[in-house]
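>> Question from a student workshop board

For tomorrow's exercise we were told to take the sequence and the ligand below, predict the bound structure, and bring the output to class. My setup keeps failing. Could a helper post the expected result so I can at least see what it should look like? The ligand is zinc ion.
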Amino acid sequence: MEESKFSEEVIEQIKDIIPWGLSDENNLLIDKLILNDNLKTRYKTYGLCRECYQPNTSCDTSDFGYVYWCQSCNATRFEQDFKNWTSGDHHVDELVQKSQLKAKNYKEVIEWYNYQFEDVKTLIKDKSGITYTASWYGDLCMLEWDYVRNSWKRYNPGRVILRYLHDEPDNPVEFLKKVESRIAMNGSPNSARLYGITKDPKTGNFMMVMELKHIINFRDCVKNSNNNDRLKLLRDIARGLKDIHNNGLIHRNFHCGSLSIELDHAFYIVSITDLGSSQPANPKSIQDDQVQVYGVLPYVAPEILVGNEHTQAADIYGFGMIAYEIMTKLPPYHDVAHDESLASRICQGLRPSFNCKVPPLILDIIQRCWDADPSNRPNANELYSLLYKFGFDAFFVQSSLAYRQVLEAYKINSSSFTGFKDIKLHPQAVYTSKLLTFKDLPNPQNADVDQI
Ligand SMILES: [Zn+2]
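>> Workshop helper replied:
Here is what the output should look like for this input. Compare the format with yours to find the bug.
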């Protein structure tokens, strides 16, 4: 289907009008000239491309001001440049080219970068791969087309992440599946941006080049958070999860270590990391009645512990545990060993206990996320809208139940809540991902916690 476009006559009449803050007279003219609602909205929101005079496909704010994007003009530019570069692997080339042709804004573009990194330091080494931080020199990342210089405007993002995945040596197809998952998240404000792909000349391994946020530790963030921070964290994590699920993806290893928290002018900005690379390709196997799962035990849904497939509902269970930790400042099951006995009790219905007053509406959301029956858990869209409404009411609507509940919890907790200060973790309480092996766990069920 051919996309509708402005005709030459329409362009002639509107090209000198600035679409923002239209006078009544110009508004009438626009309404008369542009009958296609989609084109009209794009024109009024994103303005006209300076090259083809069709409406832009996006206008984003960036650290460098507004960034306008015309998909059609930029796709043509990219296509003309395809012959000038190659990664040496046609699968990689195709994926990069696809993103460049499809991009409707600057964040959706990825590029192939020749290896131009220095001062490379290992940040995290785990089962799934190695994450490095590095300084970038050379072409740097793309922002928008510079009509004056007739070239791409680029900027230096400072230090970046280089991410190498263990399970893809000699298998770029597997690597590219993970890259595709990341590209899908590039438009989300709560996700570290993927800039492109490079190849380590020493090892020959492909690596993702990603944004490095000024990360602070999740526990430090929670420890220092106030009531407002905590409600905002809950809402923003739910939004990140909603974006993942609405892209048809499953995180599969959602725990507090999957969150990257950035402190920006006294506000916490949370991103969900490690999507699509958080576990080995075939982490779960059932052999001789044994179930093997890769994850952090307190955050793994009981149905996964007994060998079921990962689902979005299992991510929601993990969210319930993260929400528990944010509200209580206690890591779930911090005072017991994370072993088979705990896994068994979780299947029997054990859930963490609360050390403080949590607003009942939030408590109800957490407990729904923890339900042993995945179909009783809220989905990510519902979760986000519940938490968005709760946060809005608690901040702004004094007559609301949320406002009263937050105030009441605050009063009770300020007199009795000791918080995180004197928490001692059990020596066998493990909060990093590992391979968990279980046998003969009971079928998951809900239960009265006191009976377990
Ligand atoms: Zn254009």
